[in-house]
UniProtKB/TrEMBL annotation:
Pfam families reported for this sequence: WD40 (PF00400)
Protein known as: Uncharacterized protein
SUPFAM superfamilies the record matches: Quinoprotein alcohol dehydrogenase-like, YVTN repeat-like/Quinoprotein amine dehydrogenase
Biased composition (Low complexity): 31-71
Organism (species): Anaerolinea thermophila (strain DSM 14523 / JCM 11388 / NBRC 100420 / UNI-1)
Signal peptide: 1-22
Keywords for this protein: Signal, WD repeat
Stretches for region Disordered: 31-79
Amino acid sequence: MSRIRLALIPLFLLIAAAGVFALRNASASVPEAPEALPTATPTATPAPTATTAPTATPTATVEPTATPTPTQTLISLPVTNGTPVPDLPYEVITAENVHRLREIARYGYPRLLDETPYRLTADGKTIVVGTTAGIEFYDALTQAKNGGFEVEFLRAFDMSPDGRFILTRAGDTLTVWRQDGQKVREFALEAGDAWALNAVALSPDGSLLAVQRPRGQVVEPDRVDVYRVEDGSLVDTVRGMGAQFSPDGKYLATVFDASVRLYPVAELGTGWEKRLPGETLPWCGEDTCGLVFSTDGTLAAVVRAARVDVYQVETRKLVRQVSGWEEARYKVPLVSFTKDNQLVLIVTANPDFGWKFGVTNPYASAILVNISSGEWISEVPAPEGFVYPSEKEILMFSWKPEGEMPYFDNPVFLIDNKDVKIAEGVGNELWTCGVDGCKKETLDTSVSLDENLTQYRIEKHENHWAVISPNGNQIVSFTSPTDEINVLIFNGNVAVVYFQQSLMSVFVKAFRTDGKQTVISGDYARIVCYRYPYLVFEVFFEKAIKVLNLEDWTVQKFNTNWTPVGMDNSKLFFANHDWQNPSVWVWDLSSKEKYSMPVQDWKIGRTGETSASSILLPYSELLFVDSSGFVFVFDLRTRKYLGEFIFSHPAPVEKFVVSDDGRLLMSFAYDGFIRVWAVVPEDAPVR
């Protein structure tokens, strides 16, 4: 696949049990030294003169040398960058053994978290960074890395003001850690997605954990449960949405009835579920809003898109109101206080970010304001990265991974003989990632890749485009009203996708190997999948999907509100996101049969989507359906739901691929990692 000049296409064209096994080594037996046989005395020969019988010389016994038992080296899984997939006798993935599916390899590089990836300790000395691989610590002055620990599937984190305790939200667990990476306690709790403040919060001394209740529960969702970290017991339940502790440990803040409610921490445990505290701060109703405390907890900033109000917490008195920058609707500035609480730093949102092509920085300006006088001490363009105050100057920190994993749109996977590769042509750049990391090649023209990673040149001429095969032959010529195109090649067939902004429509020009062609169009549409001989096209405004069969050249249209997630062997897979009856539907285009299989619930991840992709495994008829990084597994032979695995939550799995023998499953997600999964024999030398 090739991407050429991506502007609005990404908005509408998203082309679409671990265990520890010990080796059972039988101890080699060492043969004992054989017993010395008794030496027979020879019979004397009669003679006229008696002869003294000779003394028998005993036969010396040679002790055999014991053969040492070889120590077998155990393989630590998953292997990472630079180490190929271990050569083990993996089992074909089936319904009987899928519960033993485990991650055996992980390649790629972490990415920053979406939810507040940077924090600064109250003393201004340490920057704490959250990535999709875990927590990292940096010296705020030298910006040198000075520690960290791994947290797989990390989604968000909170910390005590001094950084001694870290709270992580990863997969389906909440964990409190010490700064050195030692676990204090793990909670098997599901946190709700709070529209105000944070879904989870940790008290400054690390003793209390506040958790937003999930909205899917029958009980009222506007409740926050508070747990004691020491023993995991429930301390109290307070009313409100979201949670945040003040740095001095005096208050737990939630939002309820258009106000910030400040619950006295010292009074938690006295039954707050049916009553409200008298201490409140103003909130901003339906508008997007934020709350930030000063480092000592005496001040609180209520942050709106175009204004920041600073209050004294104890008196709830407004002490400073700051405004005057260009408003970015639905985006609030980042706000932080200096450690002496005399200045406030406001990093304003960029109103063009996410809307205009080429705008990569989500922030516009960094403004340092004196709280007492209201004077703007400085205003500078906000650099990309983390902006933080130090005395009377503004500093910037930008986290960099060890290597770059590009944001693929629709990469091509290859998993053959345990060779793992993922690649995509982006304009005239060819990205290839695998065991040894990622490499980028700059070519003299745009390229597209087929399912075998074969390169096809995409050439633009004066009045047409051409697709050129590796042997130099032109296989397709086409015209397009825009340069914003995607070229897909599969089984020698070509599909050209382009977005025409004047019509707000997506068009697909499909070309068969024999030269036959057709056009499919739709308002606000996307390619769901292309798996020969089918190309599946979702049209949002029509609430329908269109399926092109490249063999008989027919287009079928299905009217449905369900989300198509994939197709294989004439079976079309849908996700029904009805929260009352969540399910996966299978439509067989050949037999015209359709049936559903219920799931427990759909997960919501970093993109707000609940499902992105699927794959049907050969031999076993197992269907894997992504749900924001949780993967549901179904047996199509029995039409039963088998369970779920965490593959990459909260990052959705963008694509799956399975090896031809059905033994290795590969996934790629927006957390920056390629993962390889397999059923490892129970007696394999792994740990």
